[in-house]
Amino acid sequence: MKHKAYKANIIYTPTPAAFEVVPHGYVVVDDAGKVVTVSNALPTQWAHIEVEDLGDCILIPAMNDLHVHAPQFRNQGLAMDLELLPWLETYTFPEESKYANVAYARNVYSQFVRELWRHGTMRASVFATVHRDATIELARLFHKAGMGAMVGLVGMDRNCPEAVCNNAERMVNDTHALIDAVSDMPLVSAIATPRFVPSCSPTMMRAYGDLVAREGLPVQSHLSENHSEIAWVKELEPEASCYADAYRRYGLLGHTPTFMAHCCYSEGEEEQMLLDCGVTVVHCPTSNCNLGSGIAPVRRFLDCGIGVTLGSDISGGHHLSIFRVMQYALQMSKLHSTLAGGREAFLTLSEAFYMATKSGGSHFGRVGSFEPGYEFDALVIDDATLCDGVTPSYSLLERLERYVYLGDDRQLCRRYCSGALIPDPATRQ
Amino acid sequence: MKHKAYKANIIYTPTPAAFEVVPHGYVVVDDAGKVVTVSNALPTQWAHIEVEDLGDCILIPAMNDLHVHAPQFRNQGLAMDLELLPWLETYTFPEESKYANVAYARNVYSQFVRELWRHGTMRASVFATVHRDATIELARLFHKAGMGAMVGLVGMDRNCPEAVCNNAERMVNDTHALIDAVSDMPLVSAIATPRFVPSCSPTMMRAYGDLVAREGLPVQSHLSENHSEIAWVKELEPEASCYADAYRRYGLLGHTPTFMAHCCYSEGEEEQMLLDCGVTVVHCPTSNCNLGSGIAPVRRFLDCGIGVTLGSDISGGHHLSIFRVMQYALQMSKLHSTLAGGREAFLTLSEAFYMATKSGGSHFGRVGSFEPGYEFDALVIDDATLCDGVTPSYSLLERLERYVYLGDDRQLCRRYCSGALIPDPATRQ
Q1: Sign of dihedral through CA atoms B300, B301, B304, B307?
Q2: Out of B74, B294, B390, closest to residue A74 by CB
Q3: Backbone phi, then psi, for B94, in 5-degree steps?
Q4: Which of A291, A293, A334 sits opposite B292 (nearest CB)?
């Protein structure tokens, strides 16, 4: 790769408070795929490099999905009439059990990775299943596509059907196999993935604690998603002072980067614990709506300094597009504020965009912004079909907002990950 | 037109309680565009008629949008950071003022009608503006497209900028002009459209009361959308016992078919009044989320016997697809139930589908179902791109649910209104 510049309408969020907008500006990317500079005019020292002129397109950082269940891909948009626990029993576990079959896994996981690509998500933190070979296959598919991922082999050994269970020993061995497998995949890594407290016995949790301490693996799981789940955890782990404490007691809360999905009902002691342990909340508003879980208090998390990112959480969530998830984050924030008597500030578009880009990307390296040194993960949006030829035309920020609310994969004309143009994964498999 | 049969996977909702599913069945449509019968096999007396084989496609009734602001089309997906009243002042009224210019109106209204078509909405109840010529142009565009509409010339004479105001006399004269203009448009009619109480003086309301009594026009307006609006109405109409009563007192609640959008906070006396007056509630959940208005108690309305339909309400709503609105209706129903301590049943998919089809369509004649005598308003869905070639394949109802949550206009391959195949309106204008 040589140095190269991209000319386009550049929009990104160095901070959540505001968009940085550079109309018809240049991003210079070095031979390692990292941003050197963004500027209005091509700096003289780069006058000789290749410039790719993207015309009137918008160039933004690519999307990052910090919570998604790959083996639930076939259940997307299905069975939306159930609450979390019966939904797991009736739809999710039976589908996940099929991943014992690697051929099945390869087929559906290929479609899953392609669909992430289609919607502009270049990095994802993914739950697979308990099945080693299928999970390694998923990692391989990300690698082959040139996309980034933290891939989690799931651990679960109680309160679930035999076919989707493993045990602590198998989980440890299989996670080691996954770590080995991804060692030569630069954009893919392994993440410790205890499903959630109700599925993990103390033995499993202790095994995770040891593994994480030894290998320095990041951790992802679920936390305080809905009322019945929280009550169940209280019953299962009576000595834990709150749901989060049931992870903390086993060394699974903040010893390494830790991502907890949902947190709809994290408050008081638990909220303080998330802050103290530096846990990242993964907000999954589409899922929380579909399963009727509730509305996470995102504004409060941000105000007290807890990091928040976004997750599609398919198939609790119905759609892989993180732009769609952004819409719901904004909408749920407004409803949350109204239900609280209007005393809470809504999330703004730049805050939601920051969650999806710079906040989400920060867990994959320096990803999610166009500041110097960031890996060039980017989307090129040709939104001509969303503009209408009427004057005065839309401003650049209006065009971005309209893309978030009205656009889809049809307007995404190029996708870059770590400096490389990423073609349709279907053409590479 | 001659009798004709369509062969496809037929799905519709004669009642809200359940889908009627006829795999590879036949709909026979007569020469007037009305459904004669739906059956598993082609009845012998129709053995000679033309059969259009739609293969493995799904055939459903077309969508009906009972609350949509055509002149807000350009504001779709914009300015989502404001609550109702400031949003009206800052974005909506300035845009609506442009419709004094008929050329502007023709340009944007053409795009609006085409976009309704694209998303499978064959009938709509539409707010235009106070401008006569632009409103007649909108009616003409629906007629030319072969699509159904109730078109409303808006009345408003207080609390809004001069450029979007009329007065009672102009409203009455211009509505008569609209009634004349649509008299030779079989699928288009006029609807009385007082914007909402804060915009309409007692003089305007009385003029509407007289007009509706004289002409038998249906009525559409807004009701109990958010807290500040409700408080304002209480101030403006101190003698009204509730917001709905401020319409009732002028003969604008149920003397003729009456559609009230939102009703997020209609309860007690107001709810009883809606029931007693036979008012139809138009549920606009995308809009209610975007503007942080709240969640309408739809389950309670249905349980007490109030009719409920769906509206996209652009540009409070961000998207014209009634399938998208269905998603939000289901999701908001789940959140509403959870916030009420889980003591309320969610809406089911068949209930939401019924609202969008048979309930919504009932206000345009016998529309929205495939029962005998219904006008053949239909969509053909080719969802092959949403199926994944994995066996076992999805059931027909699963395919429909996945289309609702994951599909878009790309899967809609044909659209029928009142028996006629409706081509892209852009090819007819």
Answers
A1: negative
A2: B390
A3: -55, -40
A4: A334
* A331 to B289: CB separation less than 8 angstroms, yes or no: yes
**Contacts with A338 from chain B: Cβ below 8 Å:** 226-227, 292-294
Mapped onto helix, strand or coil, the DSSP state of residue A139 is helix
Instruction: Give me the count of residues in chain B.
Output: 429
Round to whole Å and give the CA distance between A160 and A299: 35
Rounded to whole angstroms, the Cα distance separating B29 from B18 reads 23
pLDDT at B82 over 80: no
DSSP designation for B224 = S
Contact B406 A348 (CB under 8 A): no
Nearest residue to A286 (alpha-carbon basis) of A80, A116, A44: A80
What tens digit of pLDDT does each residue of A34-59 get?
999 999 999 999 999 999 999 999 99
User: End-to-end alpha-carbon separation of chain B, Å?
Assistant: 23
Taking phi over 0 as left and psi of -120 to 50 as alpha, with beta for the rest, B203 belongs to: alpha
B224 and B263 Cβ atoms separated by less than 8 Å: yes
CB contact under 8 A, B330 and A77: no
Per-residue pLDDT at B1 exceeds 70: no
Partners of residue B335 in chain A, C-beta under 8 Å: 289, 292, 294-295, 335
DSSP state at residue B342 = T
Q: How confident is the model at residue B85 (pLDDT cuts 50, 70, 90)?
A: confident
Closest Cα in chain B, distance from residue A78 (Å): 6
**Reported confidence tier of residue A2, pLDDT bands at 50, 70, 90:** confident
Cβ separation B318–A406 shorter than 8 A: yes
Q: In which residue are the tokens 């936390």 written? A: A223
Chain A partners of B290 at a C-beta cutoff of 8 Å? Answer: 330-331, 334
**Partners of A171 in the beta sheet?**
none
Instruction: Give the span between the Cα atoms of A405 and A384, in whole angstroms.
Output: 15
Q: Is A286 exposed, middle or buried (0-12, 13-18, 19+ CB in 10 A)?
A: buried
- CB-CB neighbors (< 8 A) of B348 in chain A: 81
Contact at CB, A390 and B107, closer than 8 angstroms = yes
Q: Please give the single-letter amino acid code of residue B192.
A: A
Nearest CB neighbour to B80, from listed A293, A294, A401: A401
- Alpha carbon distance B203, A277 (integer Å): 64
The Cα–Cα gap between A73 and A317 comes to 10
Give the mean model confidence (pLDDT) for residues B326-347: 93
Least confident stretch, A130-144, A293-307, B67-81: B67-81
pTM for the structure as a whole: 0.97
